[in-house]
Amino acid sequence: MSTSMASFGHHLLSLFLFTTLLSTSINGNSVNPSNTTCPSFDCGNGLVVGYPFWQQGRQNDHCGYQGLGILCTGRQPLLCLSGDIYRLKKINHSENTLTATYNELNNTTCPVAHHDVKLNSSYFLNISMENKVVRLFYNCTLYPPSLPYIECLRYGLKRSYVFGEGAIPEFDWERYCETTVSVPVIEKGGDGILVNSFGRALQDGFMLTWRSPDRACRSCEASGGFCGYGNGLLQKFICYCNDGQQSDNSCHHNGNFLCMI
Ligand SMILES: *[C@@H]1O[C@H](CO)[C@@H](O)[C@H](O)[C@H]1NC(C)=O
Ligand SMILES: *[C@@H]1O[C@H](CO)[C@@H](O)[C@H](O)[C@H]1NC(C)=O
Ligand SMILES: *[C@@H]1O[C@H](CO)[C@@H](O)[C@H](O)[C@H]1NC(C)=O
Ligand SMILES: *[C@@H]1O[C@H](CO)[C@@H](O)[C@H](O)[C@H]1NC(C)=O
Ligand SMILES: *[C@@H]1O[C@H](CO)[C@@H](O)[C@H](O)[C@H]1NC(C)=O
Ligand SMILES: *[C@@H]1O[C@H](CO)[C@@H](O)[C@H](O)[C@H]1NC(C)=O
Ligand SMILES: *[C@@H]1O[C@H](CO)[C@@H](O)[C@H](O)[C@H]1NC(C)=O
Question: Taking every annotated instance into account, which residue ranges of this chain make up the domain Wall-associated receptor kinase C-terminal (predicted)?
Fold first, then answer.
């Protein structure tokens, strides 16, 4: 009896070690965005976008995280954040960062940001610490004298200003300016030159980071799978495995090694 228990224990230990080794080795590949189950894509401008982003309307039922669907329009990858559309400029799958910019800026030298960059914190994207936040005040009818203003946005007596958040001169801006917008930009240079460099800064965009959404997804990814969310709903979680199977948790359960005891 005790020998068979010991033997059973030994099998359990081997199974545990085997499973651990297996998941470790799969884990090493699991972030490979060029896998075929949820393949990377290119909207036509050369930027290769991969899991956990997925191509809206094209890919395996929402083959990626909720809210990270990319729409290819006019060869540009577009991302929707809290109802506003941004253009993806860069993506780094090894450090989980992306750079995005207002889609409507269209490469103009004197761009206007019409709304704040808003993120829905219940999604998986976060503003990176690499950014600094600038605040723009448009069409101010009254302003402190001798502050540098944005020349190309001057309309008669109305002036527009830009400051780093935290370096806004004391004044009742909200009262005398038509609109005010807050935008993260990739930290570069000092605050002093903002009135000249704000156009470039808006074009360069801001950096976001992403994280794994939940325990089920982390376990799916650790097993070499890809997390999908059918209908964009967290409740409709699907783990897509490389063997083409689907699971509601981890791809190990689709393997056959569990039968080897
Ligand atoms: C996808 O992953 C599977 C299992 O990890 C691997 O065998 C296959 O070579 C990968 N395919 C590509 C294109 O990387
Ligand atoms: C954030 O997302 C949740 C879940 O989809 C939604 O209920 C909520 O209205 C969203 N909030 C904003 C500000 O968009
Ligand atoms: C992604 O980030 C890593 C780590 O910072 C860096 O080594 C790599 O060159 C970056 N890749 C791209 C394509 O920018
Ligand atoms: C920017 O480009 C989009 C399509 O690429 C177009 O619909 C929009 O009118 C353009 N906006 C400006 C200000 O040129
Ligand atoms: C933006 O304009 C500059 C010069 O006006 C040009 O060199 C650059 O290629 C343009 N970029 C895009 C994405 O159109
Ligand atoms: C986003 O970043 C902020 C500041 O770094 C952090 O406090 C917060 O927990 C992050 N949120 C998520 C959902 O990761
Ligand atoms: C500022 O005022 C001008 C002229 O009234 C208008 O054309 C422009 O759209 C306004 N800018 C903003 C950002 O509201």
Answer: 161-244
Taking the C-alpha atoms of residue 60 and residue 38, their distance in angstroms, rounded to an integer, is 7
Cα 12 to Cα 221, 223, 249, distances in angstroms: 24, 20, 22
Write b or e for each residue in 162-199: b if 16 or more Cβ atoms lie within 10 A of its Cβ, otherwise e: bbbeeeeeebebeeebeeebebbbeeeeeeeebbebbb
**What is the full DSSP assignment across 155-173?**
BTTBEEEEEETT-PPSS-H
Specify the residue for token string 């400029």: 89
Q: Whose CA is nearest to atom 12 of ligand 3?
A: 92
Q: Is the peptide bond before 52 cis (omega within 30 degrees of 0)?
A: yes
Residues 6+ away with beta carbon under 8 Å from 259 = none
Query: What does the pLDDT profile of the chain (261 residues) look like in tens digits?
Result: 455 555 554 554 444 433 333 333 333 334 444 467 888 999 999 999 999 999 988 877 778 888 899 999 999 999 999 899 999 999 999 999 999 999 998 788 899 999 999 987 657 899 999 999 999 999 999 999 989 999 999 999 999 999 999 899 999 999 999 999 999 999 765 555 688 889 989 999 999 999 877 888 888 988 888 988 876 555 678 888 877 788 877 886 544 444 433
Choice from 115, 120, 214 to test ligand 2 binding pocket (greatest atom count within 8 A of CB) = 120
Phi, psi of 66 (to 5 degrees): -60, 130
Pocket test for ligand 3, best of 42, 89, 91, 94 (most atoms within 8 A of CB): 94
Total-model pTM = 0.78
